Amino acid sequence: MSLSRRRFISIAAGAGAAALALGGAGPARARAGGGLRRWTGTAMGARAEMILPAAAMDLLPRLRAEIDRLEDVFSLYRPDSALSRLNRDGDLDAPPLELVDVLGRARAVSTLTDGAFDVTVQPLWALRARHLQAGTEPTPPEVAAARALVDWRGLRVDPARITLARRGMAVTLNGIAQGYVTDRVADVLRGAGLEGVLVSLGETRALGPHPDGRPWTVAPGADAEPLPLREGALAITEPAASGGHVLDPATGRAGGRLRRVTVQAPTATTADALSTALALVPAARRDAVARAGGATAVWALDV
Fold first, then answer.
1. Is residue 92 part of a domain?
2. For the domain that residue 152 is a member of, what is the CATH number?
């Protein structure tokens, strides 16, 4: 059973975004005319979208290949991904550099939040998924047993080897990997000299404003005012959506302290991790965590 952590952030390119489909990535809606192209598909198990200038069309196979390569590192849906092998075996020799990088960044956010952000919550997710499928609720002893396997300090990361301290521990990167993949795709586009680009692979990253000079429009929720974005990234977490898709490592329960939190930051990786973390940290610490973590703006909506 798939458990989605957040809703897709809708983006608007304005007039002139013709749709593209690539490599069986799924249907796309088109608008006529203009110099922009909109590609829609999937990435990391979620809906994905890119708005690109016509000059970027030759890069689409490379971009799709980069998304696929990174899914082979981070995806829990692929049984042979690097992350799946780590969770299955409890260790991983010669790990991909991208996995080492993401886990290092995750550890920094875990340290900053005293473990409110913890990528080792996967045992709690697995327990929740089993009970959702059965239409039952986890018992307190089951929750306690799963919580005993959750501890970011028990994840040992080295360029040569990644190890989980105890049998049964497991990692999910749903709170950071979508942002990382978004950034890597944006890096390919920027490396090709492109600006006026919007990439939304679970999180949203802008490389400069819309080609006509105005900001991109990003809607963080159906009941939220659209936000302008000229450069940098936006990520949203809605803890109560879909029955609760943020798990508190301290309690094992779904929920959070906010109805919605939207984070703007220079990179999608940072925005992704902080939007999850800020949903869980106490209100008195939110501003300090946001500043220390690198957020440039935060919009928090109380429950």
1. yes
2. 1.10.3980.10
Q: What is the pLDDT of residues 252-285, one digit of tens each?
A: 888 777 888 999 999 999 999 999 999 999 999 9
53 within domain boundaries: no
For 23, left (φ over 0), alpha (ψ -120 to 50), or beta? left
What is the per-residue pLDDT for 66?
96
160-199 confidence digits (pLDDT tens): 999 999 999 999 999 999 999 999 999 999 999 999 999 9
pLDDT score of 265: 98
Per DSSP (E only), the strands in the chain are: 10-12, 17-20, 36-43, 46-53, 91-93, 155-158, 161-164, 197-200, 204-207, 216-219, 227-229, 232-237, 258-265, 297-302
Do 70 and 98 meet the contact criterion of CB atoms below 8 Å apart? yes
C-alpha–C-alpha distance, residues 171 and 193, integer Å: 36
Count of CB atoms within 10 A of residue 28's CB? 17
Position 201 in a domain:
no
pLDDT at 5: 41
Query: Do 218 and 75 contact (CB within 8 A), yes or no?
Result: no
DSSP per position, 104-153:
HHHHHHHHHTTTSS-GGGHHHHHHHHHHHHHT----HHHHHHHHTT--GG
* Contacts for 232 with CB less than 8 Å, ≥ 6 apart: 205, 206, 264, 265, 266, 267, 271, 296
Strand partners, 260: 301
Task: Return the amino acid letter for 303.
Answer: V
Q: Per the structure, how many domains does the chain have?
A: 1
pLDDT at 238: 86
Answer for the pair 198, 72: CB distance below 8 angstroms, yes or no: no
- How many whole angstroms separate alpha carbon 92 and alpha carbon 118? 19
Structural domain includes residue 139: yes
Residue 156 lies in domain: 74-164
